[in-house]
Predict the structure.
Amino acid sequence: MKAYRRIAMPLFLATLFLLAGCGSRASNDDPERTTSSDELHHVVITVAGYGEIRLELDASAAPETVANFLELAGSGFYDGLTFHRIMDGFMIQGGDPEGTGYGGSDKKIVGEFAENGHENPISHVKGVISMARSSKNYDSASSQFFITVDDATFLDGQYAAFGHVTEGMDVVEQIARDAKPIDDNGTIPPEAQPVITSIAVVN
């Protein structure tokens, strides 16, 4: 596995109860919102033993987040990494080169969500992809991301959602069902973490 600089902080949300009831409730189907075709990008996540997850990324909602994800995917950064944190009925989280929740790329990006002063209309409904971050630092996201297995709208306004699954939601759900976390935080032992064979940029 590739070696990258360690980030000394657990990413994502360690204390969910602090987030409940907060944030906006933006709709993903806002009829007033228009997105041009050049702001939409498509990627395919291939997971060993499971299949493909196809996603559409929306740069109009989170431009820096999408640009960062596409750059990492295009460079092969994600190839061979894993989904290290899985909670059935909630989300699958991956993209950590250490597979521990403490790793990331060498670059941190601004958190593009309402609580951090950025309008983001994407709601965390089932099948949305969003960036993981430290619970204490809004601008700490780097490479770790998560895909919601079910609606998690209590995250709206506090995490940078940037796209949604277009095909392969059954793959996401199967990964979640098969997971056997060893604690309440969804930690998956290294030997049992589903492997991301590749994340390919389609356009």
